[in-house]
Specification:
- The structure is a single chain.
- With 308 residues, the protein is an alpha/beta fold.
- It is built from eleven helices and ten strands.
- The strands form four sheets. Strands 5, 8, 9 and 10 form a four-stranded antiparallel beta sheet that branches. Strands 1-3 form a two-stranded parallel ribbon.
- Strand 8 and strand 9 form a beta hairpin.
Length: 308
């Protein structure tokens, strides 16, 4: 390592880094920044600025934006900026699973079938399709918060009964993803804003996207056919503080002028707070991230209430 520091063995090498982490912990994307410093110290040149993917907020959007930047910079660097076909192929290969919302690209229709009476939704099959992983059912035996009662942070110890299945192989150090349901009360409150007719909630729906090449409408595999209630109950994130981009999408659909203005105001508040945190080098350490999120949620709620 000392030899590398006194020379430039990576001179001529170009790189771009996207760090993955969580702002719930201190030193967010610290390893990515360390690698960037090490690469630059040894003569490598950064092709695109380092991107930070936060698992709590917009990680996929950050990746897509970073990927687009890398493609454009690479095409320019290797003199293929004028080759549109080459750029299209590169973008298609890296973004073939792009599901960014567009009003002309996605639609919700009635599913060509319905659940029969007494038939339940196969949540594990649906989640496996949505996340491209083999999701297995387990029963919760126990959960315990390991942090002190006065702490702003939570470390949850979970004990699961796998039912003796041999498909779930887990060793110490492995990561296990758990897919809990959204709060039924919150789901009902959201759906009641659309209609009080609970029969509508139980109607089977299908999300479709328009194929860019054939212009045909095809099922979106990331969200399986299910009822409207199941979509909000099991598949959609309805508890995370909404991003500015999501609020702008909702603004476009708002028919009421007052509601449109409120959504626009909320989007600007989120952008303003984001700029402040960046300008002051906000560091979410020692549990301050939890307090920051609580402050943001209360602020957005107060703004909404005060204007209705």
């Amino acid at each position: 390592m000392s030899t590398m520091k006194t020379s430039t063995p990576l001179k001529g090498l170009q790189f771009s880094i996207m760090g993955l982490g969580s702002t719930a912990y201190p030193h967010f994307c610290g390893f990515a920044h360390s690698i960037k410093t090490l690469m630059a110290t040894n003569g490598a040149t950064e092709l695109c600025p380092l991107a930070e993917g936060d698992e709590l907020s917009g990680e996929e959007e950050t990746f897509k934006a970073w990927t687009q930047g890398v493609i454009q910079a690479s095409c320019k660097e290797f003199c293929i900026a004028d080759n549109n076909k080459m750029k299209e192929k590169l973008q298609a290969s890296l973004l073939e699973d792009n599901t960014e919302w567009d009003v002309d690209r996605f639609r919700v229709v009635a599913a060509p079938w319905a659940f029969s009476k007494g038939q339940g939704h196969d949540a594990c099959k649906g989640l496996s399709m949505a996340h491209k992983r083999n999701v297995l059912p387990c029963k919760l035996k126990m959960k315990k918060n390991l942090q002190a009662p006065y702490s702003d942070r939570k470390t949850i110890l979970v004990s699961l009964d796998t039912g003796g299945t041999k498909d779930l192989l887990y060793l110490p150090g492995d990561h296990v993803a758990i897919f809990p349901c959204n709060n039924p009360k919150l789901v009902s409150e959201i759906l009641q804003l659309q209609t009080d007719n609970t029969d509508t909630w139980r109607q089977s729906i299908r999300v479709q996207f328009k194929d860019a090449s054939t212009k045909e409408w095809k099922p979106l595999k990331r969200l399986p056919d299910c009822t409207l209630y199941e979509a909000f109950h099991r598949y959609l994130d309805i508890s995370t503080t909404p991003s500015q981009k999501l609020l702008k999408h909702l603004t476009a659909f708002a028919g009421d002028a007052h509601a449109k203005n409120q959504l626009h105001a909320l989007a600007n508040v989120i952008l303003h707070l984001y700029c402040i945190s960046k300008a002051h080098n906000y560091n979410p350490s020692k549990g301050s991230q939890s307090r920051h999120q609580q402050f943001l949620r209360h602020l957005l709620n107060d703004i909404t209430i005060s204007n209705y």
